[in-house]
Every structure is written in C-alpha cells, then in structure tokens.
Amino acid sequence: MSVFIPSTGPETVSQDVPNISFFPTFSTADLRTSMRVIDAIPTQRVFEELQRAVLATNRELHHWRIALQDAGHPTLSDVPAESYGDLNELTIHYRQAVFHRAKAFLIEKSTDFDSAAEGSAQGKDMEPNVEDHFRTVREEIAALLSYGTDTQSQSGAVVELI
C-alpha cells in the first residue's frame, strides 16, 4: 500500500529587504501576507522583486525625500502626519506603493511560464491586474509627493493618458 502526502511547496523563509535609513524596511513575509503572494513562488524571487520595487519607488521619491531631510526629518516616520495605529499616513502610502509595484513585477514575470494556448490566455487575463497594481503605485506616489506642498489640501487626481 502506498500513501501520497502532498507537499506544501518550497519553504518560505522570510528575508528583510534592506532600505535607505529614511524609509522603512520590509520583509518578504510582509509582502506575502499583505498582497497574497503564494508560497509556490520562491522566497529569493519575492526578495528580488521586492528589492526592485523599493529601488524604483525610492528613485521616484528621491527629490521629495531630500527636501524632507533638509527640513529636519531624518526618517519618514518623523515627518508630521496623521497616525493610523502604529503607522503614519506617509508610511502607509509608501508601503502600498512598494508592495503594489512588487506584486506587479511578480505577476509580469509569472506570465511567461507557459507558452501553450492555455498559458497565453491566462497571461492575457493577468494583464489588467498588472495595470491595476501600477495604477495604485501612481496614486500612492502622487499622494506622497503632494504631502508638504500647498496642493496637499486640494483633492488630487491622477490622469492616465491613453
């Protein structure tokens, strides 16, 4: 008699993604939990895409970060902003920008696994999802960049050109 015991997939050990001192660090476990990243994706791949997302987001926020540091705020959590539990609104916007970008990167790379008709159709189904994640990144970046400017109190809009 033989018994089949299903595997739970690769072991998912959490790794911290280093960041510059102004912004918070994140772990691959944070991303997996928040964005429902399946355990079948190896931790190293999740780490690399989260790292790419941190770098890309930091690059977009470079001048904004420098201005805040010049104004005497050594970290994002030191910038005066509304608090929601343990996090201020700026940290929440930054986290969402990074996590949605990382999720979009993971989805983009996962569409190239199957070149058969079924895999191609599944990849096409994922495209709107990737666009939704990148749209959220743009909204979160816009929210951050508007903080501390005279337009902060105005309602913001992100215009997507076709």
Give a structural overview.
The strands form 2 sheets. Strands 1-2 form a two-stranded antiparallel ribbon. Mean pLDDT is 84; it is low at 151-155. α2 (43-60) crosses α4 (89-110) and α4 (89-110) runs antiparallel to α5. The longest helix has 30 residues, at 117-146. The radius of gyration is 19 Å and the shape is globular. The chain has one domain. It has 5 helices and 4 strands; from the N terminus they run ββαααββαα. The protein has 162 residues and is mainly alpha-helical. It starts with 15 loop residues before the first strand and ends in a 16-residue tail after the last helix.
Keywords:
single chain, 162 residues, mainly alpha, 4 strands
* Element-level helix/strand string: EEHHHEEHH
- Weakly predicted, low-confidence segments: 151-155
Secondary structure class reads: mainly alpha
Sheet of most strands = 2 strands, antiparallel
Q: What overall form do the CA principal axes indicate?
A: globular
The gyration radius over C-alpha positions equals: 19 Å
Portion of residues within helices: 40-55%
Strand content bin: under 5%
Number of domains: 1
Q: What's the quaternary structure here?
A: single chain
Q: How do the strands line up in the largest sheet?
A: 1-2
End-to-end CA span: 61 Å
- The pLDDT mean sits at 84
Strand tally is: 4
Q: What is the count of DSSP helices, taking H or I runs of 4+ residues?
A: 5
Write the layout of secondary structure elements.
Elements: E1 16-17, E2 26-27, H1 28-35, H2 43-60, H3 62-70, E3 83-84, E4 87-88, H4 89-110, H5 117-146
Antiparallel strand pairs: 1-2, 3-4
Helix pairs in contact: 2-4, 4-5
